[in-house]
Amino acid sequence: MGKLENLKIAIGGIWHETNTFSSVKTTYEDFVHYQLVRDEQLVRRYRDTNTELGGIISELSEPGISIFPTLYAAAVPSGIIEQSVAMRLCNELVHRIKTAEPVDGVILALHGAAVAEGMDDFEAGILECVRQAVGASIPIVATFDYHANVSARMVHDASVLIGYDTFPHTDMAQRGREAARIMMNIIEKGTVPHCAFRKIPLLTLPLDQQTDSEPMRTIMSELNEIESNPEITCGSVAMGFPYCDVSYLGASVIVYGNSIESTNSAADILARKIWDSRECFSSQTVTVEQGVQRAENSSVRPVVIIESADNVGGGAAGDATGVLEALLNSSNSRSVVVVADPEAVGAAETAGVGNRFVASIGGKTDNQHGPTLKIEVFVRTISDGQYVHKGSYMTGCVTQMGRTAVVEAGNVQIVLTSLRTMPFDAEQLRCVGIEPTQQDIIVVKSAIAWKAAYGEIAQEVISVDSPGACPARAGRLSYRAMNRPLFPLDSAVTYTLL
After folding, report:
1. pLDDT band at residue 241 using 50, 70 and 90 as cut-offs
2. Which residue, 49, 101, 200, 326, has fewest beta-carbon neighbours within 10 Å?
3. pTM score
């Protein structure tokens, strides 16, 4: 087993960021609509893409290594996964891995914030099942998202866990290649590195977590310095996903290394750095009305309005109407808003391109995202809503918005999609004939990851405090399962390093 030849590595994964405050459950069809691939189709779809699997495939494409693709299932962030769906996907993944046996290792692409009915720690359940299938001696390496709520159970059954280093997320392929290299190193040496895991009683929101701004810039710089130590195999910081009410919610640090001493020391340094920065995680927002007025009066273009409470990438509905209504009431500027509303798409198709009709838009998923608006609109285009990512997020991957209609109400362009779509690539607008650089105002239903699409062209950025399933203030959420105390929800919180 020490020789890197005639090796068989099984690859696959299940990826979902679960918003437990969402009223809409995640179904099997949600995985089908986004990413559900098996066998050799997995390799064909993800080879040369900026994804974890793309990096894994690239690194393992060496003589003497056989890649055994199993199953990869991903759904756009949304509500709790139906229990039958979670069991179906997990069972199929494990079955396909067992079909590959004997394997020399398993590499999985997970998220770290997936919750299913009856399974709060879904990823831990996946890892436990895979571990039972392959046995204690076979290494299991898994990647996870920067927003993972990492649990001790996850750490226990994985040989190594490797998290993203960036937010907006642009290093997925790098982390995949790293996972593959570490897998090969474990096989060659025949030993698994020591692990130090630290859970920090800190809750932060996506608006405060971007890695190119403080305090995360300094924290990630410390991580990079730690990883330059030859005694350290790798390290990860996971700032957690706040819209997921689980007992193990919050920030965490994982470090792997050659010795217990060096690994524990590195983990303590990172954990202390994060905890000491806890007061710095505080972003500023304005009301919807203030944000729209400020954008209207801005002397630069385009202005990006962040509607983070309706963050599609955080599991929100994507059909909030607060910012849209404010723009309709006051906009003298060319603006664009994307709204997930299959019913409105159907009505636009019935009306036909070049015609006007009164549309009922948005606010249909639940009572968290504003009222449905009655708007007279002009139908400009109807399309299949498909595009290929050309930016830094999941470069080369295909996204399906479903049947998509572009309608206009005065200066406001509304992109109506049949499927909820994360605004992480500018092709979302370009594929329907809207050039982002020529817009005055771009509304993004996102927190930070929109920067992968529009960060380079945004001349001013305004974050508004609107209603939705991903509020800009954690105090608006009714947590029940999380372990308390947790800063900043609780004032008297202490953290003692192990």
Report:
1. very high
2. 101
3. 0.95
